[in-house]
Amino acid sequence: MPETTAPETRSDPRFLYFSELIGRAVVTADGRRVGRLSDLVVATGEPYPPVESLVVKAGKLRLQLPWSAVEALAGREIVLRSDAGAVPPPEVPPPDRIPLAEEILDRQIVDVEGAKLVRVNDLHFLEVKGQLRVAHVDVGFRGLVRRLGWQALVDGALSAVRPGASYLRSDQLLSWKLVQPLDTSPGKVRLEVAQRTLAEIHPADLAEIMEELDRDQRQVLLERLDVETAADALEEAPPELAAELLEKVEPERAADILEEMAPDEAADVLSELSGEARAELVEAMERPEAREVQELLAYPSDSAGGLMTPDRVQLQPGQTVADAVAEIRRLSEELPLISDVFVTDAAGVLKGIVSLKDLLLAAASTTLGQLLREAPATVKADDGVRDVALAATKYNLVTVPVVDDLGVLRGVVTVDDILAEVVDAR
Question: E strands, 23-121, where?
Fold first, then answer.
């Protein structure tokens, strides 16, 4: 591997921005002009990778020189050693080399702390003993202003008008050692995070990030997620986007993801697929989950049946508060939203509901039959979204029970699904 250090020109370390280097004149030690700096290539494999070579634009030609050929960074020039030798850069960089301007600058990365996509506006280097290492990526607005060459003007004007402005003292720098490639292809999105940290992003934020990526990048990101995290994110994504992603995943993994999703969300996604693709995935799913989803697919998507989930806490009148608490604990991972316990007879006919507040205030030995009150409203599976929304609004319900003609509880519609449907319809 070529030497990556140049002779020491400064004893004190200093920081430099890529915007301060790009476009600099590259000259020989005797003052002969070679061209202008157009890129820097780093060698991967270290937390703060060293610059291995520089790419120089010389008229219509592009030349690549090892960083060891640099004598000094003097003023607005990059001075080369007298024995510097240049070669044409390879058409495709080796997998362990990254041309920064070509693959990183102006690209997007996933900022995990902010849970959003951000653009790389500049790069921050540490120069010490003649060696240049990438330290940070700059994703702030000030980095963009610097790139455009307006920093002195903007800083001067703002200092005069608002000397205390946060813009003047805060650069948005993300450590390079946390920037991981989303995939190995040139120019792809990079992640400011190790893969395990992806699960810490809120599913709604992860879904929003997926929407902002292009089709190929979405697919790569989905492949990086574990099944549970993928299911959580796809529950928050538009069903058509989730369906598009799952179509390109191996059926076994797609089925695993659908099994982890709430049944109503999984049904919404499957309804966006062609009949053949839908049948293949349902066939690959475990039987209990597949049966639940198939039942939901029988209803129109804009009906109470299409919105409902079969998941709920359902007990009988003779069971106690202690039984209810134990059941809630058992189902807590599967049911993100629990507001009521639904009390039915042995045939499943809805007898009433018991709120969490009532459970908390009652003795553990109290039976649910002693606490239950009539459900303020119920809907039928073929009722429309408007009927469900009106019932929830009138009685201030978090969950609306769905019953059949005999009063048997078939599922519940939660307020978040009602809101999502109403908002989408506007």
Answer: 25-27, 33-43, 51-58, 61-66, 70-74, 77-80, 97-99, 108-111, 116-119
